[in-house]
Amino acid sequence: MPERIESAASIAYRLLERKIVTLELPPGAAVTEGDLIAATGLGRTPVREAIQRLAWEGLVDVRPRAGLAVAALHAADWMKVLDARRGVEILLARSAANSATPEAVELFYSAALAMERAANAGDVLAFLDADKSFDEALAEAADNGFAARVAQPLQTHSRRFWYRFQRNASLAESAAGHVEIIQAILARDPDRAEIEVGRLNATLRGFAEKAVG
């Protein structure tokens, strides 16, 4: 499959998104455009575009005449994110089971392998990267850009909550849940894919309930 070339703005977004998800940019922290330019090593224009996207996704607050702030993180909001995420991911998984192309299948295999390697190594950051690769494979396979654009920020918020409140959970359990979804999709079984998405979401809800409690 041909390698995709990312724009500078996309690279800036990925770098900043990862720093926000992994709390390198802490929740509620005040930051400047200059801080984010320095953090990415990229120019003003791509960083500004990335900031606009992060603000639209609710990861950065843009305060007129007061600068920027990384979005706060409240445990109770995790369940709200998961509630919103469940429906759209079921739609994506069912669509993916019906329409996954050979290119999308390859992305799933790569994501599953990366996730299992990260789980076996206990590498949380590598697991987060593999989880994002899984989400991208799901979006590619489903061939529904509207649903994918709704799902993407919810998935990012969910990773951020997971990293903050549950990163010491069993990576193997989380990896197994994702692999079950992949297997259902590759088996062209939309009903099973829906069930497996529901199961993984329920597992995450259990984590969220503990975080609130």
Structure description:
- This protein has 213 residues and is mainly alpha-helical.
- 74% of the residues lie in helices and 5% in strands.
- It is built from 9 helices and 3 strands.
- A 3-stranded antiparallel β-sheet has the order 1-3-2.
- Helix 4 crosses helix 7 and helix 8 runs antiparallel to helix 9.
- The mean pLDDT is 92.
Terminal CA distance reads 46 Å
Q: Using the coordinates shown, work out and report the CATH topology of the largest domain.
A: Four Helix Bundle (Hemerythrin (Met), subunit A)
Gyration radius, rounded: 17 Å
Question: How many strands, which pairing sense, and closed or not: the largest β-sheet?
Answer: 3 strands, antiparallel
The pLDDT mean sits at 92
Q: Please, what is the CATH homologous superfamily of the largest domain?
A: GntR ligand-binding domain-like
How many DSSP E strands? 3
Low-confidence stretches: none
| Portion of residues within helices | over 70%
Give the SSE string: HEHHEEHHHHHH
What is the level 1 CATH name of the largest domain? Answer: Mainly Alpha
- Relative strand content: under 5%
SS class: mainly alpha
Task: Assign an overall shape.
Answer: globular
Fold blueprint:
Layout: H1 8-21, E1 30-31, H2 33-40, H3 44-56, E2 60-63, E3 67-70, H4 76-99, H5 102-121, H6 124-142, H7 145-165, H8 171-186, H9 190-212
Antiparallel strand pairs: 1-3, 2-3
Helix pairs in contact: 1-3, 2-3, 4-6, 4-7, 4-8, 4-9, 5-6, 5-8, 6-7, 8-9
Quick tags:
3 strands, mainly alpha, Four Helix Bundle (Hemerythrin (Met), subunit A), Arc Repressor Mutant, subunit A, 2 domains, 5% strand, single chain, three-stranded antiparallel β-sheet, 213 residues
